[in-house]
Request: fold
Amino acid sequence: MAQAFASPGKYIQGYDELSRIKKHISHLGSSFFVLASPKRLADLQETIRTSFKDTDTSIVFEPFSGECSKPETERLRELVKAQKCDVIVGLGGGKVMDTAKAVAYYEKLPVVIVPTVASSDAPTSAMVIYYHEDGTFQEVMLTRRNPNVVLVDTGIIANAPTRLLVAGMGDALATFFEARTCVENHRRNYAGGTFTLASFALAKACYEALLDDGPGAILAVQNQVVTKALDNIIEANTLLSGIGSECNGVAGAHSVYFGFRTLPGSHEFFHGEWVAFGTIVLLVLENRPQEEIDEVVRFCLSVGLPTTLSDLGQENISRDDLLRVAQAASAPKESIHNEPFPVTAEDVLAAIVVADAIGRSYQGQI
Ligand SMILES: [Zn+2]
Reply:
């Protein structure tokens, strides 16, 4: 299998950078279709208009319906065609970004992503996660087409809720460990090949940035200011984790998330919060050295990521329900099978129980 590396065409990150959006994207076209939630449009469309003032660029602002669904994609495609727009801009969280990527994919247009949170790998990836209109998961679409430009305004991220930045660190925490599993076993990545030295180096840099700057970044975002530590964590959560997982592959931490997502009430916790706990489960499953588990658990505690089932609202989960979670996490198509050894539901259940016990023991020590 060939090696493959994919990334956005350009990644720009800086304070107040949205006010300079014209400089970053005007080369892509002359008629921009900007998709964002009604609240984001109210807050930010003037900044975009001002950046493009005194140009003959046309900008259409369209409120997002709230769900990354196929009907919403079709609705937006019709508008894009009717207005003759030639560039799609997605301004917001994961669902806005994914919908913008989907519309651009079907209309064969360039896409610009402006994330307003640093909580997932959505900004840089070629992946779209589709939901039914009732909010239930439908499917993952691989567009094989990464965004042309990702523009991150750190001032906007600094004003997002702290918990979202922390959840982004949870998702980013898994990146190196899942990458290592895929790299060691020569598994296929989402770019259509195997890892490169570049992609694995980014995954390592992601984990190092979290350890170095996680707690410091939280202090910045709690006070709505941008520091070097926050810059580094935004880059880790967005660029390093995004490319690191897309171009190395994912593994058991994400399967654990998918397993727990079958439980009612699991939606009260963010993707990255489940994935952080899933990372500890992965390390137990792989029987990694105690020092490594120690470092990961201590990191989670230092930034407020979950380390126990109780932290995730599952203190009373029955063994039967846990087995169902483990069965879902080890379903045949799950990435947990990127391991070099067979993984059964009983193996996953055991790893969850022990990961929880480790987390409880650490919390008891504090
Ligand atoms: Zn993830």
Notes: The first helix runs from residue 21 to 25. The chain is about 50% helix and 10% strand. The mean pLDDT is 96. The two ends are 48 Å apart (CA to CA).
